[in-house]
Every structure is written in structure tokens, then in C-alpha cells.
Write a structure and sequence with these properties.
- This protein is α+β, with helices and mostly antiparallel strands.
- It contains 4 helices and 6 strands; from the N terminus they run αββββαββαα.
- Strands 3-4-6-5 form a 4-stranded antiparallel sheet, with helices on one face. It has a two-stranded antiparallel ribbon with strand order 1-2.
- The radius of gyration is 22 Å and the shape is elongated.
Length: about 190
């Protein structure tokens, strides 16, 4: 009994992690406004060690169209520029000797549609991840039933898993729809 409940709890935690990952991925997708989150996850070569950009520099948005990156060491300016180019975000960094500045260009209609597709793809990836977790949970419940767990209780647990998956699916749809609305708003 406890094994099945522990299994469900671990599954829920895994699904929560998938949702957090989706939220981080959607935050990286720009909607025409400058945001430090657009640069999250970028790794910079810091004396031979890959290090997160926000750990070697201060990232700020002086206005809605500009991101300013001020490294704590001036030697890092070139590494930061290279890392931004390598991340392939469609952004062009400009180094003025003190800061790396990134001007966020206004989004074209085609680019907006492309970003919406990217958002939907991230949502689908998360749904696939959650379905894989569901499959592991269902297999675990079936194994528990074979090992003596009551069959009717197993069916109820399977129903609980499906309800949990449906709830996460609804959350994913809402997040992606909100991001799509944000992207398409001019």
C-alpha cells in the first residue's frame, strides 16, 4: 500500500519538475520585451570552466528594448559575447568595453508565428514527458497488483494517475495559451 502511494508521490514530483522546466523554457522565449530570463541557461567559458552567465555578470534591463550585461571582470566581455552568439538566440551583442548590450528588435509577424510554434513545441515536449511518467506509474501499479496489491485499489490508483495527468495537461495548455497571447500582442 505504502509502495504504491510512494510511487504516486514520486510521479507527482517528477511531473511538477517537468512543469517547472516548461515555465523556464517559456520564460526564455521573448515576446518583444527585454528580459534577463532570455539569457538564463547560457554558459560562459570562465577560465576553462562552463559557468552560467548570471554567475559572472550582472544582467539588467535599463529599458524595455535593451539588456545590459556588466561582467564582474572586463576580461569576460569577449567570452560573454561568444556565448550569446553560440546560444543562437537571434540576438546580436554589442561590446562597448564596459558592458555587453543587446538591443531587442521588434518582432515581425513571421517571427511571432515562429515563437508561437516554439512555445507549442515546448508544451508538447512537456506533455510527452508527463505521459512517460504516467506510463512508469501505470507499470508500477500493475506490478504491485501482481505482487498482491488489491486489484480494485489498483484500478482506483490508475484512475488517480490519469486524473493527475489530465490536470497537468490542462495546466500546460493554459501556460502555452498565455505565452501565445503574450507573443501575438503587439
Amino acid at each position: 500500500m505504502e509502495d504504491v502511494n510512494d510511487l504516486l508521490e514520486m510521479g507527482k514530483m517528477s511531473m511538477d519538475e517537468s512543469m517547472e522546466h516548461l515555465k523556464r523554457e517559456l520564460a526564455k522565449i521573448r515576446a518583444g520585451k527585454a528580459s534577463p530570463n532570455m539569457l538564463s541557461g547560457i554558459m560562459v567559458d570562465y577560465y576553462g570552466t562552463p559557468t552560467l552567465l548570471n554567475q559572472v555578470a550582472n544582467i539588467s534591463t535599463p529599458d524595455g528594448k535593451t539588456i545590459a550585461i556588466q561582467p564582474w571582470e572586463k576580461k569576460m566581455l569577449a567570452s560573454i559575447e561568444q556565448a550569446i552568439f553560440a546560444a543562437n538566440l537571434g540576438l546580436t551583442p554589442m561590446n562597448d568595453g564596459e558592458f555587453v548590450r543587446i538591443n531587442i528588435p521588434p518582432l515581425t509577424e513571421d517571427r511571432r508565428k515562429q515563437l508561437v510554434k516554439q512555445s507549442k513545441a515546448a508544451g508538447e515536449d512537456t506533455k510527452v514527458s508527463i505521459r512517460q511518467i504516467r506510463q512508469k506509474l501505470m507499470d508500477g501499479i500493475k506490478k504491485a497488483v501482481k505482487d498482491g496489491y488489491p486489484e480494485d485499489a489498483g484500478k482506483r490508483k490508475e484512475d488517480d494517475v490519469q486524473k493527475m495527468v489530465n490536470g497537468f495537461g490542462d495546466q500546460i495548455n493554459k501556460l502555452v495559451a498565455a505565452k501565445e497571447k503574450d507573443i501575438m500582442t503587439i
